[in-house]
Amino acid sequence: MELEILLPFPSAETMTESWAFSEAQIDFRHDPEAGARCTISYAAVELRTHLLQMEPDAQICFVSQRHSGKAAIELHADSLTASGDAYALLPQKDGLLIRGAGRVGVLYGVYEFLKMQGWRWLEPGTAGEYAPEPGCGLLWPKNAVHDASASTLGRRRRAQGERGSSDLDGQKSNECVWRSAEHARAHAEAWNCHARWRSYF
């Protein structure tokens, strides 16, 4: 399998992994665009890491421009200066658009797509992580999937054929919030998603 992960930043081909873990060098309040680049790059690294565990022989690369004829997952934030957590998964020809209202929404959208593949995070940390069987292939949503809490991105419709049961029922799953909160806690800024994670306890 060949797959491109498309990011909205020049030099994504070589810099994505570096940007993903650059939070210690970023003032998220005063440089929100650098913060968005960090979070979206982290989402891309998480996506690639988990997909490679499912398909060890896959060729998955980060790109800043899509190449014709190759399957792609595009990560897009409506705003690079806001941390909005609304998201949508929108099927595209030969791929998928993961669209977030802001940087956190892109991260939530990536975890929602991984959840469709069979990934589960039942508690923070790797001990609570459950992976799908390797080699089962990717499950692409047949219809648009919207975050139920996001009026700006529409109402949620569950993807056809999602692996496993869905427990979202109008709210973000604890799993996605936990995973996103792990990255949030690594930042000096108190993200909204971190506050939402704490609200579950």
SS elements, strand count:
8
Query: What is the H-and-E element order?
Result: EHHEEEEHEEEHH
Q: Assign an overall shape.
A: globular
How many helical stretches? 5
Radius of gyration: 16 Å
Model regions low in confidence, pLDDT < 50 over at least 5 residues: 151-173, 183-201
Give the structural class: alpha/beta
The span between the termini is 40 Å
Could you describe the largest sheet, including whether it forms a barrel? 6 strands, mixed
* Beta content: 15-25%
Strand order of the largest sheet: 2-1-3-5-4-8
* Mean pLDDT over the residues: 79
Q: Roughly how much helix do the residues carry, as a percent range?
A: 25-40%
Q: SSE layout and pairings?
A:
Layout: E1 2-6, H1 12-20, H2 32-54, E2 59-63, E3 71-77, E4 87-92, E5 95-100, H3 103-116, E6 120-121, E7 129-130, E8 145-146, H4 174-185, H5 192-198
Helix pairs in contact: 1-2, 2-3, 3-4, 4-5
